Amino acid sequence: MIYLDNAATTRPDEQCFELAKRYILDDYYNPSALYAEGYNLHLAIKRAREQLLSHIAGENFELIFTSCGTESDNHALFCGGRRGNVVTTEGEHSAVFSAANELKQRGIEVRFAPLCPDGSVDADKLLSLVDEKTSLVSVIHVNNETGAVNDVNAIAAGVKSINRHALVHSDGVQAFGKIPFRLSRNIDLYSISAHKIGGMKGTGALIKRRDLVLRPYVFGGGQEGGLRSGTENVFGIMMFALAAEKRYKNMRENFARVSSLNELCRRRLDAGLFDVISPDNGCPYILTVAARGVRGETILHEADDAGLVIGTGSACSSNSKKRYSRVILACGVDEDTADGILRLSFGPENTQEEIASAAKILNDIVRNRREIMS
User: Which of 84, 121, 122, 131 is the most buried (most CB within 10 A)?
Assistant: First the structure.
């Protein structure tokens, strides 16, 4: 099987799994317990927290462990956007987009900035929506459907120049561990997730500015400094830290490798059958294309039968009854083109041989389908 749906989830890193397995079978204690074994786990979580933060943030930030990127996004929006208006983009992951629409139902004014054709936000138009009543601005770092990269540090600086009290949040799930980046002092909140970089599902984090007063999102026993109650997922946390350490240690090598895979795929896909949606300067881990005249879902199933796993967009939107991706349509793509959308997402483990085979499978499927329909 050739797996090219790494933006949806990655295969857990086996080496990290083996190292972290002790926290399931041996060090299974409650980190909140007062006995030595529990307190030692508390210290291990503290070290993991510091380790994760060190990759992208300085001492003026802290990290709250959550169950996933979606929870982190929801925490940021529902605890940060509590008054005035909230500004976000039409290209957000559903965890932000749906939360923003829920805020609208609760009486908060929500303003959506339009996208450029590649899926990045129109930064000038976004900043024009910010005013003295804006409580929160949320901008995705790497668009999960096209791979377009938003300069969130620059956008955050622009927001603060208009309203220094407005909070700035970014969904960094598709950026963390993949592209070089450090949080500036203008970003208040940043969401990350473990299973996008070889960690386990069920673990995420919300990074926050240390002096930012944030309300709890999950109440209970007071874990995570009282901001996210619930017994900590020690195994998931430790594997998250280990997987991130491995990704950041090899970031340059991985980035170059994945970039070559992306370029190879672009060359091997028949330009007469596919239109490339992703920008040339986007995150190389994601390549979105549109098959001409053939439904993306049809191609997905035929590719799966041929041993190739791909996506048609955000996996978190697959339960939606809408036929077309709202993000792709927001890029200005017409419905006929949007019907043929495919998302190929790479990982450092993929090989050039796999990419060449994947391109051939996709070319053959679309070519055969078009011959049948003609």
Answer: 121
Pairing outcome for strands 2-3 and 308-309: parallel
Mean of per-residue pLDDT scores for the chain: 95
- What was the pLDDT predicted at 371? 83
Under DSSP, the state recorded for 326 is: H
Both structure tokens of 96: 């932000």
Please say if 16 is a catalytic residue: no
pLDDT in tens, 3-30: 999 999 999 999 999 999 999 999 999 9
Please state, in angstroms and rounded to a whole number, the distance separating the CA atoms of residues 226 and 252: 37
**Is 70 exceeded by the pLDDT of residue 79?**
yes
- Helical axes 69-80 vs 94-105, angle rounded to 10°: 30
CA 7-208-238 angle, to 5 degrees, is 60
pTM attached to this predicted model: 0.96
Catalytic one among 79, 265, 283, 316? 316
Instruction: Report yes or no: 248 and 55 within 8 Å, Cβ to Cβ.
Output: yes
Phi, psi (deg, nearest 5) at residue 80: -100, -30
